[in-house]
Design a protein that fits this description.
heterodimer, A: mainly alpha, about 0% strand, B: mainly alpha, Cytochrome Bc1 Complex, Chain D, domain 2, two-stranded antiparallel sheet, 11 helices, elongated
Amino acid sequence: MDPDTDSLRRAAIDRSVKGPVLFLFTNAAFWLMASTLMGFLAAAKLLKPDFIADCAFLTYGRMQPAHIAALVYGWGIQAALGVALWLMARRTANELKGGQGTLVALGVLWNVAVTYGIVSILAGNQTSIEWLEMPKAVWIVLGIILLVFCWRILSMAARTQRSEGFTITTWYLVGASLWIVWILWTAIALLGGNLELGAIGAGISAWYVHGLILLFFVPVGVGAAYYFIPKITGQPIHSAQLAQMGFWILAVIGGWTGMQRYLGGPLPAWMPAVGAMAGVLLMIPVGVVGINHHLTTLGQHKMVAASPTLRFTFIGALFYPVSGIILALISAFTTGVNLQFTHAWYGYQIVAVYGFFSMAAFGAIYYIVPRLAGCEWLSVRLIRNHFWFSVYGIGTIVVTSLVGGVQQGSSINDPLQWDQGFVNAVLSGQPYMAARCIAWALILWSNAWFLIHLLLMVAGLGRRSSAPTLLTHGHEEHLPEAANA
Amino acid sequence: MSDQHFNPDNTDLDRLHGAVKREKADLPPGSEPAPMWVMFLGFIAAVLAGGQMGSFSGYGLESVPTYGAIQDPRSGGGPQVQLSPFELAMKKGETAYGTCNGCHQATGLGTPGAFPPLAGSDWATGGTERLIRVVLHGLSGQITVSGKPFTAPAPMPGWGATMTDDDIANALTYVRNSWGNKASMVTPDMVAKVRGTEKARSAAWTQAELEPYSKKDVAGDAPPAQ
């Protein structure tokens, strides 16, 4: 196709998704801010339980689920839907034909439902089902909204215009759109009623958490990385064969994991066994994707430093194998026996949802927003700030949660400590909680600037220029190859 | 969606489409074959994963393999060591004595001028009829401990309502056989018997009221105290 016609076409596609995508990103960024603040407060409550102890809604038992709900439903799924909508439109060369207003209205409804859900949690009205603490009515509202969004994304895939047909990104996005509907509606069907499920209810909830991470956040994040890395470096993905392996193995075994969270618990032994098997086996697709990304970015590290998108995508792609290894460690029974029910579980959730997925989503947002808002990111310093504070903050949380988890779990399991009170294991974890608290404070700082930066962009107050905002001091002219960030 | 108002900035097509124009083309993935060592590493991961299934299949395993058979590290305890009834009562009594040691102290010496001692006390080693009554309903007023007068500023409260027969029996066996004391065991049956006889009683006893019981033991068999 003639290059001018092609860029006009891409600009038209961008315009067609502008409203819903920018709406989702902006609201997601607000929720990310709220989640970070609540993460800080929850960590502070673990460190000093008597800190503002008179406020019932500030207690750890409410703060922690509200923090995770804001991270997953407020930020994660909204940002993922925005990224998926734009990526799918671009990948399949489809404009979003009508219905932008409906999507924005559903986005408003989504935010109203999440707000109601989180206020309910804070008011002490939670379901006690992990990651589904919001009232059951909220699950159904979210489930219906997701049906519409996923339908729009899938119907674009069904009308692919590109001559090369499906690419890796498209597979992952099709997978994510199908799987999240399956996972959420299964959870609603099994846990949403008034069935007295007993122990298996906890197992289903664990399956839901793993499913949402592995079959929604992972495919959207990996799909985005598979799109942006070759797009910016101009280097094709190293191996289509590795990419296929990574996708299909994830697709086949991703849904089998979860029940190993109740290793040794009151579930039929084969359930945790299958979950543990799948959790360890997932090292293969995760490793394969990691190797593929590594081989693609090999020798491109100068560009990784310069392009904000590539920088965030690259660090997300690094956190992906790390999250796979942590999942395998938590799942395998030799190591999992000391890691289950400890801080390590929080570490896994954060490395998967924040360290991997959110970093990839930040990368995508830094790429997409200038195209939709018609202006460039204002400040190199703010982006750099956001990047380093996030990386160090998340790194700190993941490392301290893992080390703290090992210490906590092994001291509770150690038969020689039979006469030690449970509280000793809690108290000895306090230094790690101090680190977590500081880390969330750092991330809070970085996310505040990210939010302000994003709001300025959406308001059209960005830099008026046709040159991208790159993270290298005045060296843009020496890096013409990075000029498409 | 495009802005219709006249604004030179908005009609600058070059700038508006700058971001789109500078993009590189979408590239199809390369056709490098998957490296052999990736297959090999995948094989190792698959074997490790299979091990998770194997260990949980349950063949010849009594317990969940996650925990295996855990050794009981408690000294002298554990399921393999059989405790005599007396040893067991002393062990449990030490825990049950936790109710008493706030006043009578872990050393059994009490607090001079406030709480009478149990070590070497004729109240502790004397008749079980008297001792059980003291614990069940409490004791007030001036008393004589091993020949010396003792005035406690506050009466001893009764523990009949809060402690079970087992706890009282174990605690008393412990008191009667610690800190140099040596006396017969108290069994839960004995405590139950006294509790039954004194069902109507709620007030604390005085020394005078208990005098008839001071040398009397509750009838009933008790295992020997070693």
